[in-house]
Specification:
By secondary structure, this protein is of the alpha+beta class. The protein contains 3 helices and 7 strands; from the N terminus they run αβααββββββ. The protein has 2 domains: 114 residues, Immunoglobulin-like (Sandwich); 42 residues.
Protein backbone atom coordinates (compact mmCIF):
# COMPACT_ATOMS: atom_id res chain seq x y z
CA UNK A 1 0.00 0.00 0.00
CA UNK A 2 1.31 3.46 -0.91
CA UNK A 3 2.35 5.80 1.96
CA UNK A 4 -0.27 8.38 0.90
CA UNK A 5 -3.02 5.75 1.02
CA UNK A 6 -1.84 4.55 4.45
CA UNK A 7 -1.92 8.15 5.74
CA UNK A 8 -5.43 8.64 4.35
CA UNK A 9 -6.67 5.44 6.05
CA UNK A 10 -5.13 6.50 9.39
CA UNK A 11 -6.61 9.98 9.05
CA UNK A 12 -10.08 8.57 8.37
CA UNK A 13 -9.72 6.18 11.29
CA UNK A 14 -8.83 9.11 13.56
CA UNK A 15 -11.87 11.07 12.41
CA UNK A 16 -14.16 8.05 12.97
CA UNK A 17 -12.62 7.48 16.42
CA UNK A 18 -13.14 11.13 17.39
CA UNK A 19 -16.73 11.02 16.17
CA UNK A 20 -17.38 7.83 18.13
CA UNK A 21 -15.96 9.39 21.31
CA UNK A 22 -18.44 12.25 21.08
CA UNK A 23 -21.31 10.07 19.80
CA UNK A 24 -20.91 7.66 22.73
CA UNK A 25 -21.90 10.55 24.98
CA UNK A 26 -25.50 10.25 23.78
CA UNK A 27 -25.80 14.03 24.14
CA UNK A 28 -26.16 15.94 20.91
CA UNK A 29 -24.61 19.38 20.39
CA UNK A 30 -27.37 21.14 18.47
CA UNK A 31 -25.65 24.51 17.94
CA UNK A 32 -23.07 26.81 19.51
CA UNK A 33 -21.94 30.42 19.23
CA UNK A 34 -20.01 33.20 20.93
CA UNK A 35 -20.44 36.95 20.96
CA UNK A 36 -18.76 40.06 22.32
CA UNK A 37 -21.02 42.57 24.03
CA UNK A 38 -20.40 46.06 25.33
CA UNK A 39 -21.91 46.88 28.71
CA UNK A 40 -22.02 49.96 30.95
CA UNK A 41 -22.02 52.40 28.02
CA UNK A 42 -25.41 53.96 28.58
CA UNK A 43 -27.52 54.76 31.57
CA UNK A 44 -30.70 52.82 32.28
CA UNK A 45 -33.58 55.24 31.56
CA UNK A 46 -35.68 53.49 34.23
CA UNK A 47 -33.09 53.63 37.01
CA UNK A 48 -34.63 56.68 38.71
CA UNK A 49 -33.03 59.99 39.74
CA UNK A 50 -29.25 60.10 40.05
CA UNK A 51 -29.30 62.39 43.09
CA UNK A 52 -28.99 60.95 46.55
CA UNK A 53 -30.77 62.44 49.57
CA UNK A 54 -28.02 64.94 50.49
CA UNK A 55 -27.68 66.13 46.90
CA UNK A 56 -31.43 66.66 46.59
CA UNK A 57 -31.45 68.65 49.82
CA UNK A 58 -28.53 70.83 48.63
CA UNK A 59 -30.28 71.55 45.32
CA UNK A 60 -33.53 72.50 47.07
CA UNK A 61 -31.60 74.74 49.50
CA UNK A 62 -29.95 76.56 46.59
CA UNK A 63 -33.32 77.05 44.88
CA UNK A 64 -34.73 78.60 48.07
CA UNK A 65 -31.67 80.88 48.41
CA UNK A 66 -32.13 82.12 44.85
CA UNK A 67 -35.82 82.84 45.47
CA UNK A 68 -35.00 84.65 48.71
CA UNK A 69 -32.18 86.69 47.13
CA UNK A 70 -34.46 88.00 44.39
CA UNK A 71 -35.80 90.44 46.96
CA UNK A 72 -32.27 91.81 47.44
CA UNK A 73 -29.72 93.22 44.99
CA UNK A 74 -28.80 91.59 41.69
CA UNK A 75 -25.18 90.97 42.72
CA UNK A 76 -26.35 88.69 45.55
CA UNK A 77 -28.63 86.76 43.15
CA UNK A 78 -25.75 86.31 40.68
CA UNK A 79 -23.43 85.01 43.40
CA UNK A 80 -25.97 82.46 44.63
CA UNK A 81 -26.67 81.30 41.05
CA UNK A 82 -22.93 80.76 40.49
CA UNK A 83 -22.72 78.67 43.67
CA UNK A 84 -25.79 76.66 42.61
CA UNK A 85 -24.25 75.98 39.18
CA UNK A 86 -21.01 74.83 40.84
CA UNK A 87 -22.99 72.44 43.10
CA UNK A 88 -24.87 71.07 40.09
CA UNK A 89 -21.59 70.53 38.20
CA UNK A 90 -20.13 68.62 41.18
CA UNK A 91 -23.19 66.35 41.33
CA UNK A 92 -22.98 65.67 37.58
CA UNK A 93 -19.27 64.82 37.86
CA UNK A 94 -19.97 62.31 40.63
CA UNK A 95 -22.55 60.54 38.48
CA UNK A 96 -20.59 60.47 35.26
CA UNK A 97 -21.38 57.32 33.30
CA UNK A 98 -18.98 54.47 34.06
CA UNK A 99 -16.55 53.52 31.28
CA UNK A 100 -17.77 50.88 28.89
CA UNK A 101 -16.37 47.38 29.11
CA UNK A 102 -16.81 44.16 27.21
CA UNK A 103 -17.97 40.70 28.13
CA UNK A 104 -17.91 37.52 26.08
CA UNK A 105 -20.95 35.27 25.90
CA UNK A 106 -20.42 31.60 25.06
CA UNK A 107 -23.43 29.44 24.20
CA UNK A 108 -24.00 25.77 23.44
CA UNK A 109 -27.38 24.14 22.91
CA UNK A 110 -27.36 20.45 23.84
CA UNK A 111 -29.96 17.72 23.61
CA UNK A 112 -30.05 14.90 26.14
CA UNK A 113 -30.73 11.79 24.05
CA UNK A 114 -30.29 9.41 26.99
CA UNK A 115 -33.01 7.93 29.21
CA UNK A 116 -31.67 9.64 32.36
CA UNK A 117 -31.49 13.22 33.55
CA UNK A 118 -28.27 15.20 33.35
CA UNK A 119 -27.08 17.08 36.43
CA UNK A 120 -24.05 18.95 35.04
CA UNK A 121 -21.87 19.19 31.95
CA UNK A 122 -18.20 20.12 31.58
CA UNK A 123 -17.61 21.54 28.12
CA UNK A 124 -14.83 23.28 26.22
CA UNK A 125 -15.27 25.94 23.57
CA UNK A 126 -12.22 25.52 21.33
CA UNK A 127 -11.07 28.21 18.88
CA UNK A 128 -9.11 27.23 15.79
CA UNK A 129 -7.25 29.29 13.24
CA UNK A 130 -9.25 29.23 10.04
CA UNK A 131 -7.41 27.40 7.30
CA UNK A 132 -4.78 25.73 9.51
CA UNK A 133 -6.98 24.32 12.32
CA UNK A 134 -4.28 25.29 14.86
CA UNK A 135 -5.77 25.75 18.32
CA UNK A 136 -5.62 29.43 19.32
CA UNK A 137 -7.67 29.37 22.49
CA UNK A 138 -9.86 27.23 24.72
CA UNK A 139 -12.49 28.21 27.25
CA UNK A 140 -13.42 25.56 29.83
CA UNK A 141 -16.84 25.65 31.49
CA UNK A 142 -18.95 23.68 33.93
CA UNK A 143 -22.70 24.18 33.55
CA UNK A 144 -24.78 22.85 36.40
CA UNK A 145 -28.01 22.49 34.51
CA UNK A 146 -30.62 19.79 34.95
CA UNK A 147 -31.60 18.44 31.55
CA UNK A 148 -34.35 15.85 31.55
CA UNK A 149 -34.25 12.84 29.23
CA UNK A 150 -35.03 13.84 25.66
CA UNK A 151 -34.95 17.57 26.47
CA UNK A 152 -32.84 20.37 24.98
CA UNK A 153 -31.23 23.23 26.90
CA UNK A 154 -29.03 26.20 26.02
CA UNK A 155 -25.91 26.52 28.16
CA UNK A 156 -24.83 30.16 28.52
CA UNK A 157 -21.66 31.49 30.16
CA UNK A 158 -20.77 35.20 30.35
CA UNK A 159 -17.21 36.10 31.33
CA UNK A 160 -14.67 38.86 30.65
CA UNK A 161 -12.08 36.50 29.16
CA UNK A 162 -11.84 36.66 25.34
CA UNK A 163 -11.72 33.55 23.14
CA UNK A 164 -8.08 34.11 22.19
CA UNK A 165 -5.30 36.62 22.85
CA UNK A 166 -5.94 38.10 19.41
CA UNK A 167 -9.40 39.34 20.38
CA UNK A 168 -9.42 42.91 21.70
CA UNK A 169 -10.64 43.58 25.23
CA UNK A 170 -11.31 47.26 24.56
CA UNK A 171 -12.83 47.48 21.08
CA UNK A 172 -15.70 45.93 19.22
CA UNK A 173 -14.13 44.73 15.97
CA UNK A 174 -16.52 43.04 13.55
CA UNK A 175 -13.62 41.40 11.68
CA UNK A 176 -12.31 39.50 14.72
CA UNK A 177 -14.39 36.38 14.18
CA UNK A 178 -13.45 36.16 10.51
CA UNK A 179 -10.17 34.39 11.28
CA UNK A 180 -11.60 31.89 13.78
CA UNK A 181 -13.43 28.61 13.63
CA UNK A 182 -15.07 27.19 16.72
CA UNK A 183 -15.88 23.80 18.13
CA UNK A 184 -17.59 22.60 21.31
CA UNK A 185 -16.25 19.47 23.01
CA UNK A 186 -18.11 17.68 25.78
CA UNK A 187 -15.60 16.68 28.46
CA UNK A 188 -17.69 15.23 31.30
CA UNK A 189 -21.34 14.60 32.04
CA UNK A 190 -22.73 13.88 35.50
CA UNK A 191 -26.14 12.27 35.62
CA UNK A 192 -28.77 12.64 38.33
CA UNK A 193 -28.52 8.92 39.18
CA UNK A 194 -24.88 9.31 40.26
CA UNK A 195 -23.28 7.89 37.12
CA UNK A 196 -21.03 9.91 34.84
CA UNK A 197 -19.34 9.90 31.44
CA UNK A 198 -15.91 11.38 30.75
CA UNK A 199 -13.97 11.98 27.55
CA UNK A 200 -10.99 9.64 27.31
Amino acid sequence: MKPAAIFLVLLCAGVVCAQQQQSNVAVEIVKFSWSKERIGWERDPFSGPIENFDETRARQRNEKRIEGAKRGNSAEVDRIKREARADAANIAAKHKDPPSRYVFVYKATVKNTTAKAIKSIDWDYVFLERGTENELGRQQFTSEEKIAAGKTKELVVTITKPPTKTISLTALNSNERGTLDGRVILVRIDYADGTSWQLQ
